[in-house]
Amino acid sequence: METGEVVRWNPGVLANPHLLILGGSGAGKTQTIRAAMLELSRRDFGVVAIDFHGDLLIEKAESYPISMTSEYGVNPLVVDLDPAGGGPDPQRFLVLQSLKETFAPMGGNQLALLDRALGEVYKNTGIVQEDHESWRREPPTFRDLESALDRLAEAAGKDRRPEAVKTKLGPAFSYGIFSKPQVPIRERGTTRIDLSKLPPGLQYLAADTLCRQLLRRLQMRGSQGTHRLFLVVDETKLMMPARREAPHAILNRIASEGRKFGLGLIVAATSSAHLSRDIMMNCFAKLILKTDKIEIPPTARRFLAERDQLSSLLEPGVGLINFGDEEAYTVVRVRPYAARVGDG
Ligand SMILES: Nc1ncnc2c1ncn2[C@@H]1O[C@H](COP(=O)(O)OP(=O)(O)OP(=O)(O)O)[C@@H](O)[C@H]1O
Ligand SMILES: [Mg+2]
């Protein structure tokens, strides 16, 4: 039942700032996200949006396209400077994980070769685990990784395996985005990273890298009571590894740890099947928009919502909201971005 009461999401006062939006195609997820981004930016929160579809533009946002022809890219080989837990060795492991996810399936042999190549790449740039000062050197890029694989292929003679690994990773090299200057992410204002021109695998690697770097940067600064920065992801599916409950999945980590470091999360999904337990449990505020009919039973179960209430959602922008501590969901009508802009 719509009561006409005004309902506001006010992350500044909530113990947990994260917002989860679920809705089928055309239900109003993007309009809701853009409305949230606009209101956050008006209240001086920093916003970083990972834009997979190219439609998260809001007024005053700084947009950075990442593509074959873009000025900026993303560098997965940047080393974490935290003396406890940082350095090239953990980074090698993380990059290996991400590549494994991006280019699945990869066999043990292929991963071992890739790991060797990554090891060489850091060694050649003089970045070594034991020497903390060396971590500050200019990080290598995927161009260096490509060369390292070339050298391994040459040394392997008749053994075609290194060549096969290089071929497999082809798009990661040919797009060039992992060898360009790193896109700047500011903690103030709204930054929109447009990944819409990339194929899905590279979107995953780029988004994964950016989110890891963001969390790490805030972690380095230590605990912070209030959330001043929000990460926005308009499609969780494109950022979840095959095993969605994996604790290393960056969205799981941000959902469960981000709050401590002042990082809030706004995520949207089209199906509850794309959501991990970490995301479900840690996003206190949940907005459910119209879902596909076959999504109603699993949504009712996972979100503890009434089926009847879910099937009564018919219009875009009309949904059910719960901020985490209420027993039941309340029907809301989201004021879309288009109605808000210009009346600041
Ligand atoms: N809050 C709203 N109030 C009124 N109309 C809305 C609202 N939200 C969305 N709409 C209408 O529904 C259309 C689809 O909305 P939107 O693009 O936000 O859906 P979506 O859930 O992101 O869909 P997709 O899964 O295809 O990306 C909009 O173009 C707009 O016309
Ligand atoms: Mg959308």
The ligands bound in this entry are:
adenosine-5'-triphosphate, magnesium ion
Number of domains: 2
Q: Structural class of the helix and strand makeup?
A: alpha/beta
Task: State the fourth-level CATH superfamily of the largest domain.
Answer: P-loop containing nucleotide triphosphate hydrolases
Mean pLDDT: 94
| Gap between N and C termini | 29 Å
Shape annotation = elongated
**What's the story with the biggest beta sheet?**
9 strands, mixed
How much helix is in the residues?
Answer: 25-40%
How many distinct helices? 12
Topology of this protein?
Elements: E1 19-22, H1 29-42, E2 46-51, E3 62-65, H2 88-102, H3 108-124, H4 142-156, H5 161-168, H6 170-174, E4 190-194, H7 200-221, E5 229-233, H8 250-257, E6 263-269, H9 277-282, E7 285-289, H10 296-303, H11 307-311, E8 318-322, E9 330-333, H12 337-340
Parallel strand pairs: 1-6, 1-7, 2-4, 2-5, 3-4, 5-6
Antiparallel strand pairs: 7-8, 8-9
Magnesium ion binds next to helix 1.
